[in-house]
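Notebook entry, cofactor series.
This is the third protein in the set we're modelling with a bound small molecule. For this one the ligand is zinc ion. I'm keeping the input format identical across the series so the outputs can be compared line by line later. Sequence and SMILES below, as received.
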Amino acid sequence: MAKITSKQVDSVQKRIRKEMERLDIQPTQSGQTRSRSDLGLMTPDGDPLCPVCGDEVTHTNPGFLFQEVKGGGFIRVPCPHCLAGKREREQHNIRRAALYDDMGLPEQSRLASLDDLDKRFASICAQFVQHGQVESRGRKFCGLFIFGDVGVGKTYAAAAVMNAAFHQGMPGIFTRVVDLLNDMRGAYYNDNIQVADVLDRYMTAPLLVLDDYGTQRDNAWVLEQLYTIIDYRTANWMPTIVTSNYPLDGLRRQADTDIILLRIVSRLAGSLLPAELRGPDRRMQNG
Ligand SMILES: Nc1ncnc2c1ncn2[C@@H]1O[C@H](COP(=O)(O)OP(=O)(O)O)[C@@H](O)[C@H]1O
Ligand SMILES: [Mg+2]
Ligand SMILES: [Zn+2]
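Returned structure with ligand:
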């Protein structure tokens, strides 16, 4: 340290303490390990450890330390550990937000929460989120088939599961079935998009939500792709949620003699736990 008189030190420390009080910085806790003296940075007590992080990279707002400058003054410097941690967290949050955006959840479903669901149904969903599968009456399922009338909250429920799964570190893709079919059709007609890439994205997503499965009248090739995705996911026991206005036997009836549609329904029935949502049309209530 440069030579300064004790009087100078006193007055500087007083200023520093005032500044720390103003900034609501807590003094260093005793008992922290003092591993090294940090770039000549210190607290007013001459402690080399940052009052906020000690030496760990943990807090959101950087602590401040003081550095002596030539001529005997001090400047306030944000703790480099805290700053590094803050930057890392920001980067992490940005990546997380981008990942969340990529999941394709509708804007109004972003706050959907399992807490808002009927208790029994919520516990099934929670089990699914935790284990990536559900058990019911001695049978195991790799997903849920959520069905019920328009407006009972199927999309909301699926989104709530997706949000909970995301918080558990399991991202996924949310798509309406019509959008997925359009996606496949787009890949078919666009030479720059490989069908295999589009398929791969849906097949390998850690969680896939197919919203609003009905009896899509579409060309056989497009439906075949949908079948491929569902078949792959169920065969490989990959967490999948399908919502529909119709129960499975209704879908089976509508499929009539269409082989692909029948195969799709058969896969859904074989691997997803049917869960009916009942209640009033929430849209009518809200609107
Ligand atoms: N459990 C819930 N808590 C709060 N709002 C809900 C809940 N379920 C549905 N909603 C709201 O009710 C409306 C209809 O729900 P939605 O999930 O779109 O129904 P469905 O997909 O069955 O037609 C939406 O505005 C949705 O946000
Ligand atoms: Mg819906
Ligand atoms: Zn720090």
